[in-house]
Amino acid sequence: MISVSEALESLTALVEPGPEEIVPLHLAAGRVLARPVEAARDQPPFAASAMDGYAVQTAGLAPGARYRVIGEAAAGHRFSGKVGEGEAVRIFTGAPLPQGAQHVVIQEDVKRDADGMIVVTEVDPKTHIRPSGSDFKRGEVIAAPRQLSPADVALLASMNHPLVPVRRKPVVAVISTGDELVMPGQNPRDDQIIASNCFGLKALLEESGAAVRILPIARDTIPALQMVFELALTADLIVTIGGASVGDHDLVAKAGKSLGMQQSFYKVAMRPGKPLMAGRIKDTPMIGLPGNPVSSMVCGHVFLTPVIRHMLGLPAEQTRHTMAPLVCAIARNGPREHYMRASFSNGQLTPFDRQDSALLSVLAQANALLVRPPHAPALGAGAEVPYILL
After folding, report:
1. Quick check: helix, strand or coil at residue 197?
2. 211-214 and 171-176 as β-strands: parallel, antiparallel, unpaired?
3. What backbone torsions phi and psi does residue 379 show, to the nearest 5 degrees?
4. What is the C-alpha separation between 159 and 43, in angstroms, rounded?
5. DSSP string covering 10-57
């Protein structure tokens, strides 16, 4: 068996960042920027008013000063003249500052009359002007790689980029294996169960940035597995569920080797998730997950999410562990790293009593995985422990 960190290192070595593609700006949210993008203009492109008020010269500006209003400037409608001494232009937020003006007196600080306006309060030292390029200047860069947030998309739009270079989503083929499985909505025999792992993993992989294809269930024969593997070879990554152990009906490794699979490793010192394997089938990376629902989902969080990040050109660091105190005591841990389903609430962690790797209902209630290092000692309530927030 290898450690979790060794397994993750081996998995990321199997894959590489995918190619760049260009997408319309309105489809860029959540995608990973493939290369730096430069601003195509200054923002704002002109000195603009930050308030509704009156644009005037700074000289002579004081309480009681009278101004003749000579025009108006609004957003998208520049005043074409020049502001002289004793003159003012009615101006609205976002409008270009007229030539000759150096200050915007806010409308609450003046009084209008038939002849113009009078400043009636102490003058605010703020000019209420947004200088040209005060947000960003032409040539400033949005760094890559980065997963584009809604704010990033707005910034790209403001920089005048209708098209965005992003990393292509890695295509992941997910294969459930086993004679005992039927798809949701079908009528299982009394010795069959409903396939669930593939749907949970699809959701997790898509949340991580992948494009996922769920392939037909592979039955427990070498030919059936070979056929589904052949269908999956056009993907960037193959993920199998089940059949990764060493029983008579665990045939994934045998089917893969019949197609020339080069195995990277088999078995990881963790629980749940020990019977994990990986390799390449005809140059396509393959990760074989255990069949127990919790095992496959825990492996998804611990391994698949970082692998997809790496394929998107992002750092593939191990899922970040945060520390929190225990609500109750826990026993010492064995030789494998243990990912315990837990509830994180009010800054504290409560592990669930039942940790069987087949219990999806417990996983659905959990919002954290309490991480117990190998051979960790027993701990009492209040002890700080690492966890992964789900």
Report:
1. helix
2. parallel
3. -130, 145
4. 8
5. HHHHH-----EEEEEGGG-TTSEE-S-EE-SS-BSSS-EESSSEEEE-
Q: Which of these, 251, 199, 245, 247, lies nearest to 221 by C-alpha position?
A: 251
Cβ atoms of 318 and 307 within 8 Å: the answer is: no
Residue 27 in tokens: 């489809």
Mean pLDDT, each 10-residue run in order, the chain (390 residues):
94 95 98 97 96 96 95 96 96 97 96 91 93 96 96 97 98 95 92 94 96 95 93 96 68 90 94 94 94 93 96 83 94 95 95 91 94 96 94
Angle at 173 between CA 169 and CA 178, to 5 degrees: 160
DSSP 8-state class, residue 338: E
Question: What ranges do the domains of the chain cover?
Answer: 4-17+169-311, 24-41+136-167, 48-130, 322-389
pTM listed for this prediction: 0.87
Q: Whole-angstrom Cα distance, residue 171 to residue 238?
A: 9
CATH of 24-41+136-167, one of 3.90.105.10, 3.40.50.10490, 3.10.20.600, 3.40.228.10: 3.90.105.10
Q: Just give the CATH number of 322-389.
A: 2.40.340.10
Q: Cα–Cα distance between 217 and 232 in angstroms, integer?
A: 12
What 3-state class would DSSP assign to 105? strand
CATH 3.40.980.10, domain 4-17+169-311, yes or no: yes
As a whole number of Å, the end-to-end CA separation of the chain is 26
The CATH code for residues 48-130 is 2.170.190.11
